[in-house]
Design brief:
The complex is a heterodimer of chains A (about 230) and B (about 325). With about 230 residues, chain A is an alpha/beta fold. In chain A, about 35% of the residues lie in helices and about 25% in strands. In chain A, helix 6 links the parallel strand 8 and strand 9. The longest helix of chain B has about 30 residues. The two termini of chain B are about 30 Å apart. The chains are: A alpha/beta (about 230), B alpha+beta (about 325).
Chain lengths: ~230, ~325
């Protein structure tokens, strides 16, 4: 049995053909053809305004499509609808600000993360930052109202949660994604609330397509970071 | 007669047993490393969760063996007048059940995957700036997990026969199951690479059925031992040859009219009870003692031997009875 395996692997390498391959041939169909991409409006990752699709992930998808000479066909819908369509192979990619921890990994293949960032507590000055790094207990921390960051702050820390609508107007400590620290002129503390690893979803088992997309994304982590900096202005 | 004690093995076999204990410790260390490695490297993938669970199950036989190895030598006392030999039987049952559940898990899990048409995704990973298809890493990990299992399994099989150790034998079968599963997974990963999404599940079902069959055989064997069934070989291939030898020995005793021979397994050793209807009572005590020594001399496994003289054997099943074959029987 072991010998058969070695032979099979050798055969795969020797013929130089595509390995891994797609069971349903997605990559072959998309290359030079149409790539069907499901989108849901999630700022700053995907923005859908009057039929115009933009955002960090949309931009990356367009660049990937260009690299394999494909036309992008955008399909807007709820995350649940898009995932159902993706599972049934009616879509090739879904972008909706998904993270690696998403529950969807049971029905779709998630790519390697192309952008990772932490949600941290930012302080207005160095002294406050040092104090917050040591202990958050009883501190009043501002956070965007109704956001997952607010939930995390409430659940995981003893801080007093101060929901606000505009983070830029706050002058105390704030819980924010780390890429906003500079824009808000904040000092980073050691208090980390959460880590987000953003990924795209492709059809289960279409491994040639998955590997092609992942290779593209892994080579462009810096590029993706730069787009995020540009798109995500508070 | 000497009261049956807790010590079981002749000195040369005690050395073999110490070797077996060492092997089982190595197995546990190896399995622990494999379990940790899989948990940390491939913990997020659904397919690898199966491999992880299997490795956890493979821990059961060595642990059962080592626990039994500590208990079985304890000397008999008021609470356990027969000694603690049957600890080995409990361990055998545990090892057999672990094998059975591993087979059942593989078959059911893979069948469900096949029915749901699940296409396993295997993407890229990045190791220190080196991008590689995860499938290659999986193949390397699987080969690495198969090789030690083959070696450990073969060594254990060799030791199990002289020790009459069913736990060790079942554990060797578990190691066989481990490397077979790894091979199935290798076929699966290569198949997925060629775009055959079902290869993984089909290979696992074939091997799962084989493991289930083995597990069933040993679980049935362990249940028979618990039920005081007739002693069987350590590999569950037929009746133990000592059963025939003891019956022949009893039949050859010229003072025996008829006798009922009851044998059962108590872990490594076999327990023998012979209920004898003597022809006459002259020198009965000497004869009984001599008979016990003669049976004990057959094999080191025959330590717990009781010969009881009785007036009659009423209602004894005819296939349990032994009639004397000695020339004296012509007289009777």
């Amino acid at each position: 049995m072991g010998r058969c395996c070695i032979l099979a692997i050798a055969a795969a390498l020797a013929c130089g053909c595509e390995f891994p391959r797609d069971p349903e041939g997605t990559l072959d169909r998309v290359r030079g053809g149409v790539m069907r991409v499901g989108v849901t409006h999630v700022e700053p990752w995907v923005t859908v305004q009057g039929g115009e699709v933009g955002g960090v992930e949309a931009e990356l998808v367009e660049r990937f499509a260009a690299s394999i000479d494909a036309q992008v066909e955008w399909v807007e819908g709820s995350e649940s609808d898009l995932m159902a369509a993706l599972h049934g192979r009616q879509l090739d990619v879904v972008i909706a600000g998904l993270t690696r921890r998403s529950e969807w990994q049971r029905v779709a293949a998630l790519t390697r993360p192309f952008v990772s960032y932490e949600v941290v507590i930012g302080a207005p000055d160095r002294a406050t930052a040092d104090r917050l790094s040591a202990d958050l207990g009883g501190e009043r921390i501002a956070v965007e109202a109704h956001s997952p960051e607010a939930a995390k702050l409430e659940e995981d820390t003893d801080a007093v949660v101060m929901p606000v609508d505009d983070l830029a107007a706050v002058d105390g400590p704030v819980a924010v994604p780390e890429y906003l620290l500079d824009d808000l002129d904040l000092v980073r503390t050691d208090a980390e609330l959460d880590e987000h690893e953003h990924a795209m979803a492709v059809s289960m088992g279409e491994n040639a397509f998955l590997v092609a997309l992942e290779r593209f994304l892994l080579d462009r982590e810096a590029e993706a970071g730069a787009i995020l900096e540009r798109e995500a202005k508070p | 007669m000497r009261y049956p004690g807790g010590g079981e093995l002749p000195p040369d076999l005690a050395a073999v047993h110490r070797k077996a204990i060492r092997l089982e410790w190595i197995s546990i260390a190896y399995l622990a490393s494999a379990i940790t490695a899989i948990y940390f490297t491939l913990g997020s993938s659904q397919a690898m969760k199966g491999a992880w669970l299997e490795d956890m199950l493979s821990l059961a036989p060595p642990i059962a063996f080592l626990v039994a190895a500590r208990i079985r030598y304890k000397r008999p006392d008021a609470a356990y007048a027969y000694g603690h030999h049957r600890a080995v039987e409990i361990a055998f049952l545990i090892a057999a059940l672990a094998l059975l559940s591993m087979g059942a898990f593989l078959v059911v899990d893979s069948a469900l995957k096949l029915i749901s048409g699940e296409h396993p995704p295997i993407g890229m990973v990045e190791l220190f700036d080196w991008q590689v298809w995860l499938g290659w890493l999986m193949l390397a990990a699987l080969v690495w997990s198969a090789v030690p299992a083959v070696i450990l399994g073969r060594m254990k099989t060799k030791l199990a026969a002289p020790l009459h150790d069913k736990v060790l034998y079942a554990d060797a079968q578990m190691n066989r199951a481990d490397w077979l599963t790894a091979c199935a997974a290798i076929v699966g990963v290569v198949g997925i690479g060629f775009g055959l999404w079902w290869a993984d599940a089909v290979a696992a079902i074939v091997i799962g059925l084989d493991i289930f069959h083995d597990g069933f055989k040993y679980t049935r064997g362990a249940a028979k031992d618990v039920l005081d069934g007739r002693p069987r070989r350590h590999d569950e291939e037929g009746v133990h040859p000592l059963v025939g030898e003891v019956r022949e020995t009893v039949a050859s005793l010229d003072w025996v009219e008829q006798a009922a021979v009851r044998m059962r397994e108590m872990g490594h050793i076999l327990s023998v009870e012979v209920l004898v209807v003597p022809r006459d009572e002259t020198g009965l005590l000497d004869r009984v003692d001599a008979a016990i020594e003669q049976i004990r001399a057959l094999d080191w496994k025959l330590q717990d031997v009781v010969v009881a003289a009785v007036r009659e054997l009423e209602g004894a099943p005819h296939d349990v009875l032994v009639r004397s074959t000695s020339i004296g029987s012509v007289r009777a």
